[in-house]
C-alpha cells in the first residue's frame, strides 16, 4: 500500500480542504498549509490564497472478485475429481472387508446351525440327558463339539462319542486320598440320611481294621439329636473294636482331642441336618471349630440327589471348608451325570464312593474310570480309559 502526496490552492483553507476531499476522498490528510498569492501577471493583480499539502492512501489493489458460484462449483468438482479415486478405493476396500466378514459370520452361523442340528450332536445330547448331566454341562460339551469338530468329522459318531467320554473323564477331579491320613481328625458333614454314620464306620474300618498297615483310630459322634444315632455308631464301634464317644459341647470335643492326641486318626460323625437349617449348621460349625486346626472336613452327598440340589447343598456347606466329596448310595442309581456335573460346576474333587450298606466293604477311593464305566449308552473303551485315567493306588 502507497501514499499519494498532493498540493492544491484555494481562496481559503476551508475551500482547499473541501477541494482535496472532493478530489481524493474523505480519507485525505492535510499535512501543512501556507498563505500564498494566486493568479495575476508577473506578481501583479494576484489574490491572496491558501496552499495545502497533504497525502492520501493510494487505493488498494482491489482483491480479485469473489469467485462466481459457478466457479466454486467447478473448483469443488476439480477437488473431488482429484481425491475421488482414492476415496473410492478406500471405500471399496472397507466394503469388501465388511462383505467378507459378513460372509464369514454367515458361514459360521450356518455351520453352527447345521452342526447344532446334526444328528450326532443330537445323539450326544440325548446320551448326556439319559445319564442325568445338567443342562449347563450338556451345553458346554455341545459347544466344545461345535468348536472342535467339523461337519465332516461329525459323521464319525464313534470317534465323537469317544472324545466326549474323554472330556467327561477330564472334567472329574479326584481327591488324593493320601492326604486323608495326613490330618489326625476326619470330619464328615452332609445333609440328613445320606449315609454319614455308615460312611464314618466304613472309613474307620478302612484305616483301622482292614488296611495293610492298621492305624490306631477312634470315632467321635456329635449326633445326640436323632433317636438311635448314638446306638447306631456304637454298634459299629463294638463290631470293629473301635472306641466310640459322644460329644455335645466344644469343651467335650477339646477334651477328647486332647485325650486322643496320640491316636493316629479320629473320625467324627456329625449331626444330619438339612443344609437349609442354618442355625444348627452354625452351632455345629462352632462345635467343630476346636477340631478344625488338625482336621480335614469332607462332604457326604447321595448319588440319588438331583443336580440342582447337589449344587445348593455344596454351597450351603461351604462354610465348613470341606476338601472333598464323598458320594454315597451309588448302588441306588445307574446315573452319575448329576454328580459329575455338580462337582465340575463347583470345582470340587471326589474322594470316596460308597455303593452299598455293607460296612466296611462298600466304599472305595473315587476313580474316574469307575465313573465313566457307569455311563449308559456311551461306548466305553476299557483299555483306553484305564490308560487315560490311571489313578494311583492308595493305602
Ligand atoms: N444303598 C445304600 N444305602 C446306604 C449307603 N450308605 C448308607 N446307606 C443307608 O442309608 C441309611 C442312612 O444311613 P446313615 O449312615 O444313618 O445316614 P446319616 O447321614 O448318618 O443319617 P442322619 O445321621 O440321620 O443324618 C441307612 O439305612 C444306611 O444303611 C450306601 O452307600 N448305599
Ligand atoms: Mg448319622
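Sequence proposed for the structure above (395 residues):
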Amino acid at each position: 500500500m502507497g501514499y499519494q502526496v498532493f498540493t492544491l490552492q484555494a481562496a481559503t483553507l476551508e475551500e482547499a480542504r473541501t477541494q482535496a476531499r472532493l478530489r481524493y476522498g474523505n480519507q485525505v490528510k492535510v499535512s501543512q498549509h501556507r498563505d500564498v498569492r494566486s493568479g495575476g501577471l508577473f506578481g501583479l493583480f494576484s489574490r491572496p490564497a491558501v496552499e495545502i499539502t497533504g497525502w492520501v492512501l493510494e487505493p488498494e489493489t482491489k482483491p480479485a472478485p469473489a469467485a462466481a458460484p459457478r466457479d466454486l462449483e467447478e473448483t469443488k468438482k476439480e477437488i473431488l475429481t482429484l481425491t475421488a479415486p482414492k476415496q473410492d478405493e478406500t471405500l471399496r476396500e472397507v466394503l469388501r472387508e465388511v462383505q467378507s466378514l459378513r460372509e464369514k459370520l454367515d458361514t459360521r452361523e450356518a455351520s453352527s446351525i447345521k452342526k447344532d442340528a446334526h444328528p450326532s450332536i443330537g445323539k450326544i445330547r440325548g446320551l448326556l440327558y439319559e445319564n442325568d448331566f445338567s443342562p449347563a454341562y450338556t451345553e458346554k460339551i455341545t459347544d466344545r463339539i461345535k468348536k472342535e469338530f467339523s461337519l465332516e468329522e461329525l459323521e464319525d459318531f464313534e470317534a465323537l462319542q469317544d472324545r466326549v467320554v474323554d472330556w467327561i473323564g477330564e472334567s472329574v477331579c479326584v481327591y488324593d486320598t493320601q492326604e486323608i491320613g495326613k490330618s489326625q481328625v476326619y470330619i464328615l458333614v452332609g445333609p440328613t440320611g445320606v449315609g454319614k454314620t455308615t460312611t464314618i464306620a466304613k472309613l474307620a474300618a478302612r484305616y483301622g481294621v482292614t488296611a495293610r498297615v492298621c492305624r490306631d483310630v477312634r470315632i467321635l459322634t456329635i449326633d445326640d439329636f436323632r433317636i438311635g444315632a448314638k446306638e447306631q455308631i456304637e454298634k459299629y464301634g463294638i463290631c470293629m473294636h473301635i472306641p466310640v464317644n459322644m460329644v455335645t459341647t466344644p469343651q467335650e470335643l477339646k477334651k477328647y482331642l486332647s485325650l486322643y492326641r496320640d491316636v493316629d486318626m479320629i473320625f467324627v460323625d456329625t449331626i444330619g441336618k438339612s443344609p437349609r437349617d442354618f442355625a444348627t449348621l452354625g452351632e455345629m460349625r462352632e462345635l467343630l471349630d476346636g477340631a478344625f486346626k488338625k482336621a480335614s472336613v469332607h462332604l457326604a452327598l447321595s448319588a440319588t440327589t438331583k443336580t440342582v440340589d447337589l449344587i445348593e447343598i455344596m454351597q450351603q456347606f461351604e462354610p465348613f471348608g470341606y476338601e472333598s466329596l464323598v458320594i454315597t448310595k451309588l448302588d441306588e442309581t445307574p446315573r452319575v451325570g448329576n454328580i459329575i456335573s455338580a462337582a465340575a460346576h463347583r470345582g470340587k474333587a471326589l474322594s470316596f464312593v460308597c455303593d452299598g450298606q455293607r460296612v466296611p466293604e462298600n466304599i472305595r477311593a473315587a476313580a474316574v474310570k469307575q465313573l465313566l464305566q457307569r455311563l449308559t449308552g456311551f461306548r466305553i473303551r476299557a483299555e483306553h480309559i484305564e490308560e487315560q485315567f490311571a489313578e494311583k493306588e492308595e493305602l
